[in-house]
Amino acid sequence: MRTLVKFFSQCFYSSLGIKKTMRWIFLGIYLIMELQKCPLSLNTAHVLLLFQSTYDRCPLELVRCIKHILYTEQRLVREATNSSSPVGGMMDSMSQKYQQINQAFEELRLLTQDTENDLRKLQHNQEYFIIQYQESLRIQAQLSSLATLPPADRQLREPALLSKRATVEAWLTREANTLQKYRLDLAEKHQKTLQLLRKQQTIILDDELIQWKRRQQLAGNGGPPEGGLDILQSWCEKLAETIWQNRQQIRRAEHLRQQLPIPGPIEELLNELNSTITDIISALVTSTFIIEKQPPQVLKTQTKFAATVRLLVGGKLNVHMNPPQVKATIISEQQAKALLKNENTRNDSSGEILNNNCVMEYHQTTGTLSAHFRNMSLKRIKRSDRRGAESVTEEKFTILFESQFSVGGNELVFQVKTLSLPVVVIVHGSQDNNATATVLWDNAFAEPGRVPFLVPDKVLWPQLCDAINIKYKAEVQSNRGLSEENLVFLAQKAFSSSSNNPEDYRNMTMTWSQFNRESLPGRNFTFWQWFDGVMELTKKHLKPHWNDGAILGFVNKQQAQDMLMSKPNGTFLLRFSDSEIGGITIAWVAENPNKAGERMVWNLMPYTTKDFSIRSLADRISDLNHLLFLYPDRPKDEVFSKYYTPPLCKRTLYLRVNF
Predict the structure, then answer these.
(1) Rounded distance, CA 377 to CA 359, Å?
(2) What is the pLDDT of residues 389-423, one digit of tens each?
(3) How does DSSP classify residue 505?
(4) Helix, strand or coil for residue 359?
(5) Degrees (nearest 5) of the Cα angle 139, 145, 151?
(6) Which among 312, 365, 489, 630 could disulfide-bond with 233, CB atoms 3.0 to 4.6 Å apart, if both were Cys?
(7) Please, are residues 487 and 465 in contact by the beta-carbon 8 Å criterion?
(8) Are 294 and 422 in contact (CB under 8 A)?
(9) Where in the chain is the domain with CATH 3.30.505.10?
(10) What number of other Cβ atoms are within 10 A of residue 603's Cβ?
């Protein structure tokens, strides 16, 4: 079934076209039911007709639904693999949440249809009222014309006209009260609809969209992908459609009131409704102007970079009919704060970005309106005065994307702005590791709705462990993360502690200064710089050995000695160097040549990236004949032989070097 569903989704983007894709989908539904022995297969024709009537005019909705099911399945499988979380409960919770959102949309649809029917009834009654009012004017004109007639004729015709006028005026009085009641009832129904709209919009924008943005931020640290925007866009489009329908109804109600003014509170109510619906649609449009693909958070000057912004309601509001242009500007943290306070920043920027203008394009197949900045480059940067010990790699900037467009034939004009995740600007590759530390801390510990770009100065050690473990697995591209023993080793290094009990570190906090401002005791580098060096070395040269479990890595010199002294001579282990950034050393146990019968643990000088670019770790271990067993007792060839360079290649390399 899953293969068929994937095929349907692919069909939509292929050259088959929408209608032909629909036929394939209907055929696939039939096949799925037959393959799964679905009880509904007895009513296959009925089911197919039901699908066709539901999705024939909006096949993209079915494809989006299928894609969302696939994405959700992949995410749940991934979570089940990486944790022991109750996936079934999460799935039920998510399904229940989506069901509640869809139920609310159905309620909004029914309410909107109800007010539409009431509005038509009101319009019909008002039109009939106007006809009768015109009739009363005609009768009055006839009565006035009686003055020109002889008294006998006037007395003959006047009583009938007076009676008729009285009847019509009585009816007009009653009907005016009825119309006023209809108008008030309609306004009350619109108030109820707008209350539900606000609630639904809050759930989608303040809960679902904010959660997506948070996942996007954590993905910047190597967390799971934030997921697609298709479901969110479909919800936002439904909101836009419902809001616009109700806005048009309120405007028509206002037009009817102006056409036939009747004293009462309805004018004030309609003004309030119009103001409320305008606020709702403004919040929707400004909140759904988002960054789909963030610019790199470590941004090097004179280097090309890309970003994508998207308007989730652009297609539904026909913004693409007059494609808006988006401008990108780099601003400082202080300028971002002023912007959110609506303070006048006089269009200041903190640098110059080349190729920073882009027109939004509408993609018919996906129904998305987006602007793809493909060739931006930061030409120069203007830095602010730094505070205290703050370095240039701790200074945060952001890319401001802004645009202006109108909807409803220039009825409403929107100025939209959105800020990227904070970026750190560097001018040289040597600044990359410190800039990455700033970004890691910000992504991991930023709180929703914060003032740009405030983060806590200290965090609990387990929180930091989660962040660096996610980062480590992403950088090394490995499912083997940091074990509890590894994290204890890191805690010992970070806090200069000797405790081996993980519980001793549960409530300890680590400050930003401890993380990447103050050097480790007796070293000229910080905790993060050391850890980042380990990641880089493993990523570039040691990944297969780390995945195989051949590298213990996070073991100090004394622990290595204690572990090896109980093992036979020739047993060795691999641990990351304490004294050098991005180094790994081999520790092994052997006889002490200066004392017969005494054994000792030896440590080689650390190997670095420079060494492994000449000769691999596996080949170096192969060269050292005194290394026999990888701790605890695995023959080294059993572990490393598959990575040895074949002898012929060694000889060729040797000849080339000597040549």
Answers:
(1) 17
(2) 568 899 999 999 999 988 877 788 999 999 999 99
(3) G
(4) strand
(5) 115
(6) 312
(7) yes
(8) no
(9) 460-643
(10) 14
Helices (H), ranges, 541-643: 543-548, 557-564, 609-612, 617-623, 636-640
pLDDT at res. 60? 56
Nearby residues of 479 by Cβ (< 8 Å), 6 or more positions away: 81, 82, 473, 547
Dist. CA 464–CA 458, nearest whole Å:
10
Looking at the chain, the domain(s) classified CATH 2.60.40.630 span 294-383+391-434
Q: Work out the angle at residue 158's Cα, subtended by the Cα atoms of residues 156 and 164, and round it to the nearest 5 degrees.
A: 125
Kindly report, as residue ranges, where domains of CATH 1.20.1050.20 are found in the chain. Answer: 94-285
CATH architecture of 294-383+391-434: Sandwich (2.60)
The Cα–Cα gap between 542 and 536 comes to 9
The dihedral through the CA atoms of 18, 24, 27, 31 has a sign that is negative
Chain segment 496-553, per-residue pLDDT in tens: 999 999 999 999 999 999 999 999 999 999 999 999 999 999 999 999 999 999 999 9
Task: Note the residue count of the chain.
Answer: 659
Handedness of CA 349, 352, 353, 358 (dihedral sign): positive
Strand partners, 372: 308
DSSP type of residue 30: H
Residues whose CB falls within 8 Å of the CB of residue 77, separated by 6 or more in sequence, listed in order: none
| pLDDT surpassing 70 at residue 176 | yes
CATH of the structural domain 460-643, one choice from 3.30.505.10, 3.90.280.10, 3.40.190.10, 3.20.10.10: 3.30.505.10
d(CA 18, CA 341): 46
Q: Which of 435, 404, 403, 411 is nearest to 528 (CA)?
A: 435
Nearest to 334 by CA among 455, 416, 453: 453
DSSP bridge pairs for 289:
311
Alpha-carbon span 521 to 339, nearest angstrom: 42
State the Cα–Cα distance between residues 46 and 44, nearest whole angstrom: 5
What single-letter amino acid sits at 407?
V
Query: For 268-390, where are the E strands, in sequence order?
Result: 289-293, 298-300, 304-311, 325-332, 351-354, 357-359, 361-363, 368-381
DSSP 641: G
* pLDDT, tens digit, 9 for 90 and up, residues 204-256: 999 999 999 999 999 999 998 888 899 999 999 999 999 999 999 999 999 99
Q: What is the pLDDT of residue 78?
A: 58
Q: Any idea which architecture 94-285 has in CATH?
A: Up-down Bundle (1.20)
Does residue 35 surpass a pLDDT of 60? Answer: no
How far from 90 is each of 5, 87, 169, 208, CA to CA, in Å?
A: 23, 5, 66, 15
Per residue in 128-174, pLDDT tens?
A: 999 998 999 888 888 888 888 888 877 888 888 888 889 989 999 99
Joined together, the tokens standing for residue 123 give: 């319009």
The two tokens of residue 39 are 């009880």
Look at strands 629-630 and 571-576 and give their pairing: parallel
